[in-house]
Every structure is written in structure tokens, then in C-alpha cells.
């Protein structure tokens, strides 16, 4: 008999509630994916304000859940299990989701699973492309995380093989957007400007690509600083900053390093499939260059549609479904949010 899994996501500035159906054959079907974003409330600060995010989650949680059930044509009583993001993320924001999940699970008397936000970004691909091969290499790129992960089992075994040593790629996008007087969050406006620019116009540095650098780690702090210094020099000399060329050259530097390291890691690990996930996965140049390099290397590339790349409840419901299907234990009732939860801990 199929089971309905409810997923709750509240790790940062999106309140997400997703519903999926876990079929007897292990297939996971998306029924509803509703998101309430507080990004506009943070825009004037140029970044996420934790207290504002927590308050927004409190206000949005129940209405978002109600929309999800209306979209799916289901009732609360149809839920068979609940999965909630336990970490990583902002402590206060996570606590809102965990508290809501415990309330729903207690009222409905259904199993509760505390799961990993980062693993959810990988699991969401199964809603579009079906089961993940084993193993698969995941390139996780978002505002807070940039990691290369070997996934042997999405429900239980994820191994980090590379990570950023400073800024995440999405964080660098936000900071460069600020330098160029582009809106927050920086990903979409930089991507848009880059389409009108020349990615070869400015030779920005490629971080962590030297012979003595960790071959699968990333660094974007130096690139961000290089962009800021370049723009400052142009302005100091009285010139007009070529925003489109700067955006394109910056974006090319990011995509170049991300895709080169992902393909290299896949080859060394003997892995034939790469999944790119996280908010930055929606970037046009990243997906374009990844497709080119994966095709040349004979590697299958999977990238979820943009809606599934950003934070949402569907990804947590999808991961919850895989955890349920694998027969993993439920979370201890006293569990709490863990802002620093390791990606290698898929479920509590």
C-alpha cells in the first residue's frame, strides 16, 4: 500500500511544505510543493537576518501547509509519516520547522523523521529523473554550501570528498552583486547580466586550482575580492564599470572551477553520473558548461528543474520517502535542530 509523506523545510528564508506518495515499488511521486519566501524582507539588509526569518516561518507555516494539502487534494489524516529538516541551517528557523513537525506528528500519531537539508537537495532529483544510480556524485551548490559528495545510498551513506574552505558559491554571487549594484539575492541578476556580457573579457582567478591545493576543495573568497578590486580600480580612474562583462567573467570563473572539479572527481571515483543540486544549480552557465564537460567525459548529468533546486518542502518529503522505504529508524522524540549537522548524517 502506498504511503503519503509530508516534508517540512525551514532552514533559512523559505518555508516549504511538500507532499509525496511513496509507492510499493519504491517510486516517489510529487503531490504538492508549496513555498513561502521571506527573501523580500531580507533584501534591504543584503542578506538573511535570522530573527526575521524565524518570525516569517512562524507566520507562514500553517498557511503553507494548508495550501499544500489543498493542492494535493488530501487531508491531514492522509499523512503516513512526516520528515522535517533537522539541520544544517539557522538555529531559530530550524526550530520553527522541528516544532511544527512534532506538533503535526503528535496530533496525527504518525512516525517522525529528522533529516538532513543537504541530502534533501540530492534526493529531490528523484522526483524528476527517477531513482539515483549507485554511486552518484553530487555537486551541491547553494548560498551556504558548496560541496562534492559521493552518494552510495541516499537514505544512509553520503561521503564528502570536497568542500569550500571559505565562501560558498552562492554567497560569492550575493557579494559580487552588491559590488555591481545589482539586487539581492545575487544569483538571478548576475546570471541575467552575464548573458549580455563576455565571459572572457576579464581574467578573474580560479581559486584552489594550484598544484598544491586540495584538488576537490573550493575557494571563492579570493575571486570575490578580485572582482571588488577590479571594479574599484575602474571607478577610481573615472571609468564606467562594464557590469555585463564583469558579471559574465565572474560567472565563468565560478562555473569553470565547479564543473572541472566535479568531472575530475567523478572520473577518479569511477562514477558515471553527476547530479547538480542547490539554488545555484539553476544558473544557466553552470548547467551549460557542466553539460558540455560531462558529455565530453561520457558522464550522465542530472539537474533538477529550477523550482526543485531552491529550498522547498518537496525535497524533504522526497528524502523522507527514501528514508522510510529503507526502513531507517524514526527520530528520537527529544531531538532538536542541529545548525551544524554534517552532510554524512542523513537522518537522526
From TrEMBL:
Q: Return the GO cellular component terms, semicolon-separated.
A: cytoplasm
**What biological-process terms (Gene Ontology) are attached?**
tRNA threonylcarbamoyladenosine modification
The subcellular localization recorded is:
Cytoplasm
Q: Which ranges carry the Gcp-like domain?
A: 29-317
Entry EC number(s): 2.3.1.234
Asked if the record carries the keyword Nucleotidyltransferase, the reply is no
**Residues noted as binding substrate in the record, renumbered to the chain:** 140-144, 174, 187, 191, 283
Q: Which keywords fit this entry according to its UniProt record?
A: Acyltransferase, Cytoplasm, Iron, Metal-binding, Transferase, tRNA processing
- What does the note under cofactor report? Binds 1 Fe(2+) ion per subunit.
The record lists Fe cation as bound by: 117, 121, 311
Q: What is its main location?
A: cytoplasm
What's the protein name? tRNA N6-adenosine threonylcarbamoyltransferase
